[in-house]
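Sequence, C-alpha cells reproduced for absentees:
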Amino acid sequence: MSSPGPHVFLLVLQIGRFTDEEENCVQALEQLFGSTASNFMFVLFTHGDKLRQEHMTMKHYLETSNPKLRELLNRCGNRYHVFNNKKKKNRTQVVKLIKKIDEMVAANGGRHYTDNMFEQVNKTLQLQQQQPDRQAAVDGGGQVLDASCMSDLLQKVLLFQAILAATQQRVSDLDTADQLKRES
C-alpha cells in the first residue's frame, strides 16, 4: 500500500439498488482489509436526484431500504453523503463530501489505515487459506475470495486514493484562486 495509507475507503452506491454483487464487493473489502477498515469507510450515494423525483427524503429511503444496506451503514458509523447526478458541475457537492471525510479523519484522530493493519489481515487470510476446513466453519459457507479478486480490489482502492488526493488538491487550488480573486 502507498504511504502513509488511505484515510478513507469511499464506497460508491447508487440510490435505489444494493445488489448482491455490491454486497459481495463490500464483503471482499472487509475481508481484504479486516474489521478495522469500517472505521475508515464512508458511503457515497449517487443519483440523489431520484429521491426528489419520488418525493422521498434520504432518511425515509434509508429507513425503508434493504436491511443489508442499513447494516453496512451502521458498520460505517452511518457516514454517508448524497450526490445529485443532475448537478454534475456543482462543485459544492464535492466540497461537502471532502468536508465530511475530513470530519471523519478528525474523529479518527487523524489516523489512517496502515500497512501494519493490512499485514495483520493478510497474515490472518493466509492462515485461513491454509486451513480451509476451519475457514468454512468460521464464515459459514466456506467461500474464500481468490487472490486475483483481492488484488484487483486493492489496485482499485489505491487508484481511488490517488484520485481523491488529486481532487482534494484541485479543490484546494480552486479555493485559493477564489480567495485571491475576492481579495483583488
